[in-house]
Each structure stands twice: as C-alpha cells, then as structure tokens.
Amino acid sequence: MKSLTFYLIRHRKTQWNEQGLLQGSQDSPLTKTGCEQAKLTGQTLSKIPFVAAYSSGLKRAIDTAKYILNGRNIPLFQHIGLNEQDFGKWEGKPVNGLKELEEYQLLSNFPLKYKALISQGETYDKFAQRVKQSIDHIIQIHQTGNILIVSHGNTLRLLLALFSGATWQNHREPKYLKMPTNSSISTVHILQEKESTTKFILGNINNTDHLK
To answer: Exactly one of 36, 79, 84, 171 is catalytic; which is it?
Structure first.
C-alpha cells in the first residue's frame, strides 16, 4: 500500500509578482522578500524527512526548492510537467490591463470556454493533462514518505482542486481554493491500495503562518 505526503509549495515572490505582470512560462528575478520567504519556509520544513524533492523546470521554482532544502542530502528533480500554465503572448504584460479582455476573463473564471485564441497560450485541457501526468508519475515512483513539490500559482490551484474532487472544467468555482500565496505550504496525503483506488486527503492548505 502506498502512503505518501506531498508538501506543495508555491515559489517565492519574484519581481514580476511585485510589478503585477503575468509570468506563466517566463521567469523573472527573485526579490529580496522572496528569498527571505523561501528561507522561512525551509526553516519550517527543516525537520521533515523528505525522501525526494521536485520542482518545475522554471528557475524561480528550482531556486525556491534549493533555498528550502538548504544543502540537505535530498535528491531534487526538475519536472517540466509541474511548470506554470503557458499564457503565450500575454506573458510579461500587466494583469490589470489584461483583466479588461473577454478572453482573459474566460481564463480566470471559465476554463472550459477558454480557447487561447488571442493569447495563443495553453488551454486548460492540455494544462490539466500534463499536470496530472506529472503527479501520477511521482506517485508511481515512490512507495512511502514525504515529498517536497515546488510549483506555481495556477498549477497548484488546479492540483489542490483536483485533489478535492474537482475537474479541470469546474476547478475555478468559488468553493475551491483561489490562488495560493507565494511560499505557502499545503499538505496532501495520498493512500493507494491499487492504482484504481487512490485516495487524496487534504491537510493544511495555503498555510502562511511561517511568513508572519
């Protein structure tokens, strides 16, 4: 029987986060505040005996994972399936300006209707497929233990909703978690007797007590 605990962390704050710019598949430098956030997260998790750590393939997530691990002898793997949703032509643009666009409103609220015709980014069906495949891959590799996963806002929002029983089509409904905070910690317990009977039990979600 598999028994895993995921510690899901959103990457620390970046310059584009502070400037209100949409990041997606692009990267921007980490801020001083972001570095402090990551160190605090690492201190909070320093006694957790992780068997492995995963980050997305984007630098802001990789660097955050390294800050958290702080030289501990824990293997860190990059998994591009954990990357943030690709927003195409919108990346690097002010979010406040994009909010006026009908297609952006579909992105924010109606995943099934978002076709990415203007942004030329990643649709939710493709996004959800790769994210789910990455998590299934991690579950397949490990039998027991604690797993650190450092990823991104939209990615973690989708994952936590899916763990709660949502579908990618309805995961933006108000009853599900909104955007996780930078450097927040969420825990999910995974129990699996057979591949067809995987049970997800949500623990503490979007915890930011360590940042106060």
So the answer is: 84
Q: How many domains are there within the chain?
A: 1
72 marked as part of a ligand binding site: no
Task: List pLDDT tens digits, range 18-70.
Answer: 999 999 999 998 898 888 888 899 999 999 999 999 999 999 999 999 999 99
Judge whether 137 is annotated as a binding position.
no
With a cut of 90, say whether residue 193 has pLDDT above it: no
Q: Would 117 be classed as within a structural domain?
A: no
Q: Does the active-site annotation cover 84?
A: yes
Residue 8, CA atoms < 13 Å, CB-side half-sphere: 29
Instruction: Establish if 57 belongs to a structural domain.
Output: yes
> Is residue 119 assigned to a domain?
no
The two three-digit tokens of residue 122, written as one number: 């990643």
Distances in Å between the Cα of 174 and the Cα atoms of 136, 198, 205 are: 26, 25, 15
* DSSP state string for 101-137: SHHHHHHHH-GGG---TTT----HHHHHHHHHHHHHH
Residue 110 placed within a domain: no
Which domain covers residue 193, as residue numbers?
2-87+124-211
Q: What is the domain-level CATH number for residue 182?
A: 3.40.50.1240
> Per the annotation, does 11 bind a ligand?
yes
